[in-house]
Automatic annotation (TrEMBL):
It comes from Streptomyces poonensis. This is Polyamine aminopropyltransferase. Spermidine binds at residues 312, 334. It is a multi-pass membrane protein. The gene is speE2. Keywords: Cell membrane, Membrane, Polyamine biosynthesis, Spermidine biosynthesis, Transferase, Transmembrane, Transmembrane helix. The lineage of its organism: Bacteria, Bacillati, Actinomycetota, Actinomycetes, Kitasatosporales. One of its GO terms (biological process) is spermidine biosynthetic process.
Length: 542
């Protein structure tokens, strides 16, 4: 049989789009059942679409740590792209079934593989400096655009398909369609953090979402609307969906090997422990073959055994210069700040709050990390509490502690800004006993000067008297001028950073002279007139 290629008359559907064209669809089921199946597909596609969006936001935060900025960029790009996709879908109205089938196949493949592609780029070509000029961020924007265009094209085509099942007023059709869409988005939004991420991880979760997306699109187009498709178009879609599902299944089989290879590319070949805690991903490396032990939390270096002792001595000992029977350590899941506190035999009790319990378990169970922290968590004086640091301070009785040590993530990380706010420090001040001290790790002074002095301004705004100081890292990337900045604060008098002359448990890595000189160097960089950071107006963006 020879097919005719004569041009169609004006307004007629293209010949390859099927007998249904833009009129009533030929369904294998009753109209009520067909309409219900279309709405079910809307529900599934909406859930998958939101999972793709959240997946991109999660990776964006993983790349740079600034979740507000990254989420804003990803979501705004996607919303813009959805509008462009909706406009482009108007041209597919006459062949809605075939167009929707192609769009769902493409969306399943691109969305399902996006996590692996982003992680691969991050591992092998990524500049993890946190700027938007590197390869992972460019690919992230590209995925946001592509997925947004495809998601935006879904709704107009689904509107056309539901009208082909049974004609109804436009307002009623839009209400039904959006109701199914929003409920599906709710399910997808809840499934990502509570099911997919903790149980399957980002890579497998994205691949499974893509497979569900492909199956839903194939079932609707090749099942319900197969009568709208020409024979050739139908078989092209079948082959396309088989190829997409095959690629997703192959990627799922290889995801374990891929993840190990990518992790080695990021952290090196001596990864000794990987832990997804539900709060963050902890990766412990080194400890063998001369490599120093190092801990990474969500891709950011938490500590390196090469020079962590200098950092933790600078953090803890100046605050211990005075009464220190009762000590609160906020954060410090790895136990290194707690180790320094326990070097004082007259410490009676140490409360550790705000630490990730998964990291605490790792600090107890890994032999190398437990040896590094001096088995701090086995000391009877140490009491670990799984609690939010802010909530712990709010519930603590007044004058409960002589010393409060904050070993928290960098203030430039969006999730941590509340722990560097005026409200947080005001609450901490109430828990200090008379003459008590609070010490804050405020990030590097050289590279993040404004952030450092905003911490100082925020502490002073909460009624504390402060002394900033800094310590240079001797062996960690000396060419970059890496340093650590701290602020020592007290409610009664301006404290002076110092270390005692003798300490049990080994020699000191720092001297009193280094801390005194560090205070002078920090003061020379002071920025004046900075406003404090508050819960409703955080000010730690560079």
């Amino acid at each position: 049989m020879i097919e005719s290629h004569a041009p169609a008359p004006p307004g007629a559907p293209p010949p390859w789009s099927g007998p249904g064209g833009g009129g009533q669809a030929r369904l294998p089921v009753r109209q009520g059942t067909g309409r219900l199946l279309v709405l079910a597909c809307v529900f599934v596609c909406a859930a998958c679409g939101l999972v793709y969006e959240l997946q991109l936001v999660a990776f964006a935060s993983y790349f740079s740590g600034d979740s507000v900025t990254q989420a804003s960029v990803v979501l705004s790009v996607m919303v813009f792209a959805m509008g462009a996709g909706s406009l482009a879908a108007k041209r597919l109205r006459w062949h809605a079934a075939a167009g929707f089938g192609v769009i769902e196949a493409a969306l399943a493949l691109i969305g399902g593989c996006s996590a692996m592609a982003l992680y691969a780029t991050f591992a092998w070509a990524g500049d993890r400096a946190g700027t938007w000029a590197n390869a992972p961020d460019c690919l992230l924007v590209a995925f946001s655009l592509a997925i947004g265009v495809l998601i935006g094209a879904e709704v107009p085509l689904l509107m056309e398909l539901i009208q082909r099942v049974r004609r109804q007023d436009a307002g009623g059709a839009v209400a039904d369609l959006f109701a199914a869409d929003y409920v599906g988005a709710l399910v997808g939004g809840l499934a990502f953090p509570f099911l997919l991420l903790p149980w399957l991880g980002q890579l497998t979760g994205a691949l499974l979402t893509g497979a569900v997306n492909a199956l839903a699109g194939a079932a609707l187009v090749l099942g319900l609307f197969r009568g709208d498709l020409r024979h050739r178009c139908r078989w092209c879609l079948v082959l396309g969906y088989v190829l997409v599902l095959g690629l997703l299944a192959t990627a799922a089989v290889l995801v374990g090997d891929f993840e190990r290879a990518a992790r080695q590319a990021v952290y090196g070949a001596d990864v000794r422990a990987v832990l997804r805690t539900g709060v963050q991903e902890a990766v412990l490396t080194g400890g063998t073959h001369g490599r120093p032990l190092a801990l990474y939390l969500d891709g950011r270096l938490r500590f390196s055994a090469r020079d962590e002792r200098r950092h933790h001595e600078a953090l803890v000992h100046p605050a211990m210069n005075g009464p220190h029977a009762r000590v609160l350590v906020l954060g410090d899941g790895e136990g290194l700040a707690t180790r320094e506190v326990l070097r004082y035999p007259d410490v009676h009790r140490v409360d550790v709050a705000g630490a990730d319990p998964g990291v605490v378990r790792l600090a107890r169970s890994d032999p190398a990390l437990a040896a590094l922290n001096g088995h701090a968590y086995d000391d009877a004086r140490v009491h670990v509490h799984t609690a939010d640091a802010f909530a712990w301070l709010r519930e603590a009785p007044p004058a409960a502690y002589d010393v409060v040590v904050t070993s928290l993530p960098d203030p430039g990380i969006t999730e941590s800004t509340k722990l560097y706010s005026q409200e947080f420090y005001g609450t901490a001040r109430k828990t200090l006993a008379p003459g008590g001290r609070l010490v804050v790790h405020a990030g590097p002074v050289d590279s993040r000067r404004r952030v450092f002095w905003t911490v100082d301004a925020t502490l002073r705004a909460s009624g504390l008297r402060t002394t900033p100081y800094r310590v240079s890292g001797r062996t960690s990337a000396p060419a970059t001028g890496r340093d650590w900045g701290y602020v020592l604060a007290s409610g009664e008098r301006r404290p002076r950073p110092a270390v005692p002359g003798t300490l049990p448990g080994g020699p000191r890595a720092l001297s009193r002279g280094e801390l005194t000189a560090g205070a002078r160097r920090a003061e020379a960089t002071r920025l004046r007139g900075l406003p404090p950071s508050t819960l409703v107006h955080p000010r730690y963006a560079d």
